[in-house]
Amino acid sequence: MYKEDENYFNNTIKNFSILKIYFKEFHFALEGRSISQEGVEMSNANYKELRNLNLYFTNLPLTYNPHFATDNTTVKFVNFIHRSIFSIDNKLNLIPELIESWNIKDKGLKAEFTLKPNLYFSNGELLTTRDILYTFESIFNKKQHSPNMHLFSNIKGSLEFSEGKENFIEGLEIISDRKFAFYFDKIYLPFYFNLGTVYSSIIWHGNNYHKTNKQVGIGDYIIDDAQEKKILLKKNSYSPIAVDTIDSVNITIVNDEKEAEKLYFENKIDLLYPSSTFIEQLKAGSKLIYGNINTIPQLDLRYLGINVQSRPELKLKEVRQAIFYALDRFKFIEAAKASTAIPAEGILPPGVTGHFKSNIYEHNVEKAKELLAKVGLRNGIQAPLLLFFSDNSTERAKANLVKDLLEEINIKIILKPLSWKDFIQACADGEIQLFFLGWIGDNGDPDSFLHSLFHSSNIGSSGNYFQYGNPEVDKLLERAMNSLNMKERIIFYNKAEEKIMEDSVIYVINHTLTYAIANKNLHGFKLHPLDFINTRNWWKF
Fold it and tell me: What is the DSSP string of 273-326?
């Protein structure tokens, strides 16, 4: 419901703060202590070296096209080379990025924007509304739909364009070279925060995404070189924000925790995401560091999912419930780095408006067996179920635990470890049965968890890897999307979450407490609750 006064809607959007009190920054007492670790001391790096930032990722990005980003690694990477209409800061405030003004009219059904003057892409081309038009036509391209187009589908005529019924998007009006407007079929409060994600990155109208190393963006960096284990980014001289202290970002692919620690202590990377063992050693005082520790609760969820369409047995809610009762959340947390995990009470993490205790599954083997017997499976499931996961030591430990726990109720499991790229593809293609995965919120709104993961329109690459569709859940999520009253929205989201948990498609395990250790030469670094990397306030000396 909304008031007649248009200012009400403007103020609702512009003051829409999700963060609350949960995301205070935590620091060990060790912060600021300079210690020589294992004889390694910081050298007097020359000026040029100090302007280079050395990071590591555990995987390569799956695409260079921001509109097709679906995994966290890709999102973090493309954020270096692309920018959106808005950005989202560390307190989850919405910040105008490429626009100088915006105004919401017609009771929220129209929004006008004016681009900042003199913004240039990395090839020197001036940003104009031609690029805005090209961007949204690319997102809704009928030949190759973006998996993220649902985030913007309230734009009038966007679905007709995506289906090839129209050759233009009715709700996108180009007023001048710098002014444009969106018209909406319905109110969708998270739309503006979605304009702050990489999925809406504004791309140059001449971009060719088949030439993967030659992307033209409006971000702070461009790709200088891309190899199998290393990517080099250099400063975009046309960036609207001067990056005076960091000239280049060297990203090394390292998927082994011990190797990452070794590189940090050899001063070859500036930022370390420490292992659970490392954190425990720090807390016990048996490990010393040379650097500053930063930690923040992440807006994420780690879970075991079930593709409800993959096997006849998994279509039965009682079987899914039996699987979940056989599991033990706290054993998973122990296997998955206990010191960096917060037990999940529900789908929404603390810090997201609407978080509540929706989890209904505790370890109960007898209850699991009763449920199997109820549907005629007294002897369990002898034709093995497949458990898919991204192949690393932590996920493998969790997978082995599932195998052991489900064998207690006579459900056989075959483990299917895959590379990250192949795993995500199998999820998108619906080839998975049981699977371990995580989800990081895009903007801090409950919609980015519940709608993205569970609405039937998002089955497949858009996020609903459960292949789950429930008309009652869809209706509740749609009512939440279209309401301007936050209290009303939360009621709908909570009811939808209760139904999803009852349908037993997701077994929630934990949220993440993220730690990072920054080299003593690196200043201004702060973790972001959405796991973004923004180097604009970082410097080295």
Answer: ---HHHHHHHHHTS---SEEEEEEE-SEEEEEEE-TTSSTGGGSHHHHHHHHHH
How deeply is 98 buried, as exposed, middle or buried, from its count of CB atoms within 10 A (0-12, 13-18, 19+)? buried
Residue with tokens 């892409």: 121
Beta bridge partners of 388: 416, 435
Q: How far apart are CA 111 and CA 9, in angstroms?
A: 11
Q: Which two tokens stand for residue 396?
A: 């493998």
The model's pTM is 0.76
Question: Cα angle vertex 182, ends 64, 112, to 5°?
Answer: 110
The contacts of residue 399 (CB under 8 Å, 6+ apart) are 387, 389, 415, 417, 436
The residue length of the chain stands at 541
Three-point CA angle 314, 318, 323, nearest 5°: 70
As a dihedral over the C-alpha atoms of residue 483, residue 488, residue 490, residue 491, rounded to 10 degrees, the angle is -130
Write out pLDDT tens, residues 313-372. Answer: 999 999 999 999 999 988 888 876 666 788 999 999 988 888 889 988 999 999 999 999
